[in-house]
From TrEMBL:
The organism's place on the tree of life at top rank: Bacteria
Protein name: ABC transporter ATP-binding protein
Keyword annotations of the record: ATP-binding, Nucleotide-binding, Translocase, Transport
UniProt-listed CDD domains: ABC_Iron-Siderophores_B12_Hemin
Gene Ontology MF, one: ATP binding
Family: Belongs to the ABC transporter superfamily.
Gene3D superfamilies cross-referenced by the UniProt entry: P-loop containing nucleotide triphosphate hydrolases
Role this protein plays: Involved in beta-(1-->2)glucan export. Transmembrane domains (TMD) form a pore in the inner membrane and the ATP-binding domain (NBD) is responsible for energy generation.
UniProt domain ABC transporter: residue ranges: 2-242
Length: 262
């Protein structure tokens, strides 16, 4: 049943010329949920996430709390939907803290050096959340790829939006920070946000996600709890792999194990 605070994709479709990148997709996700979008390369995950964020022209509707996101004023939309792009590069040597402060822009905090107390606190919290406080005055161009990834995540967190859309947020992170960021995103969800994460890591998706959306060739091949979606027949059909499945500390363990021959 669709609730008033749900995030709803209603017949969302993306095409470029005559090429359909995302077939009409419909789903509803509640706030308080961590959802993982998985699927092979080219399945349409980034395109779907960008369409949900209103960053690519699409047909159909995206509703948040019953409101059509496309009809929201831009600032309101930016306060409601925070977005972490894939492989984002910042080319200017801005201090880490100033880049994260850009997340407050939709709230009116235009100048990172003259933030209101609430904006300043949100930036400090986001810095702590991703363990970057010690690097806050370093130019972002002098950080490693994984550190920059955490800056991008912190910038989105600083917005404190009810919906957080993150495209491969853990892709360039070491194992410690992969776990740390997934746990952080799970905490954001438990605190009432809806978090939608695109990831190639089906193991961490199985462990942390409440819902999994599995894409194949631009369509929603499956959606549901990880145990149901990341099951052997679906993994074989969609990823052409066999996986090792077990439990550890009452949590699922899922490891891609062998390619299946065609
Ligand atoms: N600007 C574009 N012009 C033409 N085709 C595009 C464009 N952007 C994406 N595509 C195509 O759309 C399809 C979906 O791309 P998308 O980036 O959404 O896939 P993905 O599932 O996120 O892949 P990956 O896991 O490799 O990041 C791919 O076949 C891609 O080649």
């Amino acid at each position: 049943m669709i609730q008033g605070n749900d995030f709803v994709a209603d017949g969302l479709r993306v095409s470029l010329g005559r090429r359909v990148l995302v077939q009409p997709i419909s789903f509803a996700l509640p706030r308080g949920c961590l959802a993982a979008v998985v699927g092979p390369s080219g399945a349409g995950k980034t395109t779907l996430l960008r369409a949900l964020a209103g960053l690519v022209p699409s047909e159909g509707r995206v509703l948040l709390g019953g409101q059509d996101v496309a009809r929201m004023p831009v600032r309101q939309r930016a306060r409601q939907l925070a977005y972490v792009p894939q492989g984002e590069a910042v080319h200017w040597p801005l201090p880490v803290r100033d880049v994260i402060a850009l997340g407050r822009y939709p709230h009116g905090g235009a100048d990172p050096r003259r933030l209101q107390a609430g904006d300043y606190d949100a930036v400090s919290r986001a810095l702590d959340d991703v363990d970057l406080a010690p690097l806050q005055h370093r130019p972002v161009t002098e950080l490693s790829g994984g550190e920059r990834r955490r800056v991008a995540i912190a910038r989105a967190l600083a917005t404190a939006a009810p919906v957080l859309l993150a495209d491969e947020p853990i892709a360039s992170l070491d194992p410690y920070f992969q776990l740390s960021v997934m746990a952080l995103l799970q905490r954001q969800a438990r605190a009432g946000a809806l978090v939608i994460v695109v990831t190639h890591d089906i193991g961490l998706a199985a462990r942390f996600a409440d819902q999994v959306l599995m894409l194949l060739d631009g369509r929603l091949a499956a959606m549901g709890p990880p145990n149901a979606v990341l099951a052997p027949p679906k993994l074989a059909e969609v990823f052409a792999i066999d996986a090792y499945r077990a439990d550890h500390e009452a949590q699922p363990v899922l490891v891609p194990w062998a390619m299946r021959s065609a």
